[in-house]
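We read letters as residues; the fold follows as tokens. Both lines appear below.
***
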Amino acid sequence: MEAALPTSPISAVAFNGHSMVGKLEKVLVCSPRTAGWNEPGRVARWHDLGFHHAPNFSVAQSQHDVLCRELEKTGAEVVELPTSRDLSLDAAYAHDASLSSDFGLIVMRPGKANRVPEGVEHAAFCLSNGIPTFSTILAPGTTEAGDIVWLDSRTLLVGHGYRSNAAGIAQLRELLEPKGVDVLSAPLPYGPGPSACLHLMSLVSLLDETTAVVDLPWLAVETVELLKSRGFKFIEIDYSERETLACNVLSLGERRLLAIEENHKTNDRLRNAGFDVRTFPGSEICINGSGGPTCLTRPLLRS
């Protein structure tokens, strides 16, 4: 068993992760610069990490800067993870390594081995910002927050696939059910296989309390029926934009969304449904590494 990270008492500082759609107040990011996209030694691993091509640092950093400006325009405080030699290119997708909760940070144990050190960095940074560590997922469990969706403040849906396994989901259930949170498991499809990045949030993103954007043919029947039973309405992506991560949409709260600008057809569907859709270019920072705006952000506080 791996050693758990030290925890600290719950502080009076506000922190919250029990919503995917509340107004975004504070968010953690990890820029390409911090993740070493400008360092030849780290960039050399691009193929092994599943990138489509060697990252173009200057383009990726510029696109990430636009993302951060859009977040700040909505009033969110954007904080940057400190650099570390233990981070890989994947660290730019800051969502996955930790899960924010009312009880403190839950440190994930990613199914992708190079990402395991990210959780330690998240925990140390968040503790310095008044957010204690509630607990840490330990081997043989694996969890990645890209598989985790708060359906409401008391219900957590976790995708069961190659990145989050049964042992990891069981640990989450053991942690959270005594706190009054139901932890439900959602089966994920085989998809492109174990080497690809297929998270639950690759297939569904919540837009507000009753609306989700979905890649419907790839969702399991029981997940579709669960969401419908809870009153969610669906907006389906344009399937010609599946490979450009059209389902990866970040709710900013108050019916405002942040999406990849390349997905014009899906973004138009969201606007036609009454959402305020802001966009940023994602060719290099998102599509190349298979991570959209939700992946690039670790929300720490929503109101």
